[in-house]
Amino acid sequence: MGIKDTIFKSINGDERSIKLLCDECHRIAVAYLRTKRSRHDLLLKYLFTDVNDLALDCVADLFYRTDGQLEQFTNYFNEDTISDQAEEEVLIDLRRLVFSKVNEGLFRNFQRFDPSLSRIIRNLKRTLEEEKVHGARYDSKKSSINFGLNKESLPVIPNEILEIRLSARVSNIQNTVDAVEELRSILSKEERYASKYNLVGFAVILRKVFAYQLEMEDEQELKNTYNEMELNRFLMASISLLKTQLFKTYVVSKKLSASTFDKYLQTTRSILESEYVKESVHEGYFEHFESFFPEVTYDEYRSNHRKTLEYWVKKVRDKMLYEVKKEENFSRYDDRKGLIYSNVNVSR
User: Fold this and answer.
1) CB of 21 within 8 A of CB of 62?
2) 0.70 cut: is pTM over it?
3) Are 301 and 262 in the same domain?
4) Rounded distance, CA 73 to CA 71, Å?
5) Is residue 218 part of a domain?
6) What's the CA gap between 207 and 317, in Å, rounded?
7) Closest Cα to residue 162, out of 195, 140, 133, 136?
8) pLDDT band for position 182 (50/70/90)?
9) How many domains does the chain fold into?
């Protein structure tokens, strides 16, 4: 049975055809999500969820029935028109429908996952639609911010470079108008890159930059509150608490050998010690990594190790900050108890 016949029979209520159509839509959605993931789509990376489950969630709405009919397929595919179309044309139309549902599903899932970022996305769209920044416009078909600087044919600026440029300007940004103006300024000075950027990707980077700034402020407060010995105690405790979980994830599953796992832990400890406990001669993650993996080149590190190491460092850092906050809360609780008990008259 071809896809045209499957859709036609599904619209007319044939349960077996509906099952086949559901499987085909799920297959298209999975392939589309995997393509987005391979292109380092920031929104999908931020969601960090199972592709098969996410694909099913995205296409489920297509199979909602009204009075026993697949309303969305009935509205999208005209029975008279579909009969005159070739199989390939019908498949192209089906892909378009599924792609649109996947994009809607990604944004819907993201709203649940991080409401603050969905607000940034809405505010960026409003800023562009209301033309608050001269020369900036929103291309709704491609979901991109364009500045019309006659550089559209050039490659898009890599996420890492934009994040670095934006981090240096974060103090200039008070609202989304400022953010778009800073983006325009950055892209106008980058001669090698196009004067456009994906709107959702920009929102994710913007959110990440501000989150990092807040994290840096928390870290500075931490250094002002605790001495080096206390910070080292928190660090070692956090590594110890996470070691078993990381071992199962990476060694038991054979993603890393036991010796490589140990060197990753040492590198993670070295990086966080340099941030919180003592100064180090190493600058940047790679220099720390290189001292334990001297045989690995920088290109190999970027391709095969960087993401894993950054994840480990973030995981241990978050655990460390959590343990610090937990101890602070216990301390405040003990102080409160002491104050309460000191005010209780125990004489009879």
Assistant:
1) no
2) no
3) yes
4) 6
5) no
6) 19
7) 195
8) very high
9) 3
